Amino acid sequence: MQFIEVSLTGVRSAVITLSAPGQPQRVVLFPMLHLATPDFYTSVAARLGSCRVILAEGIVGNSLVAGALTSAYRLPARRDRLGLVAQNIDYARLQAEVIAPDLTGRQLRSGWRALPFLPRAALFLLAPVMGAVFWLRGSRRTLARFAAAEDLPDPALVMLRDRAPGLMRLLLDDRDARLAAALDQVLARTSDEPADIAVVYGAAHMPALTRHLQSRYGFRPRAADWLTVFDF
Question: Which terminal residue of the chain, N or C, has fewer Cβ atoms less than 10 Å from its own Cβ?
Fold first, then answer.
């Protein structure tokens, strides 16, 4: 299953609708890139308007660590020539119930301090440097090199998991588990009527969630609409 597709003309994200026998709800996946054209986020927000519940990614509360890590895409978003912006969906304007199952700033700080010093320091310093370099010399094609995502193992993530397992647990596995638990709760309390439940998370979180939905409930993809993230 493809979540983010990179082609000769640009990058697209698949809005994937999943359903399961005996389940009145549908789960609608919105695999996100955190740097895209304004039109992409407008299109996502428009489709979220028909959803009853939205599970949205985002560290809850202030966090110096999150600020440093997200600078890798927030700095390039300030470069006008790219025509891209950082993710900016205004959930408050939607009628849906919005749930933020992500880590709090305090939980992120606690987990971060438990990591070995060298990988922690390297990533803390490297993310802003990457953002600055991309701001100076980056292009949409450069960004697209790292954008593709599907449900098959990502070699880059496999290598990173071998070299920094604690970091992967903190930034990916623990957050995947929190998302799955929150979705379980929503499915349990909405089991008596049809409802579209949206998951708006980075594409890297989608493989684990789809495996969870398939193995526990039997959810399978039934439809997909492609949204242009940016073109070349």
Answer: C
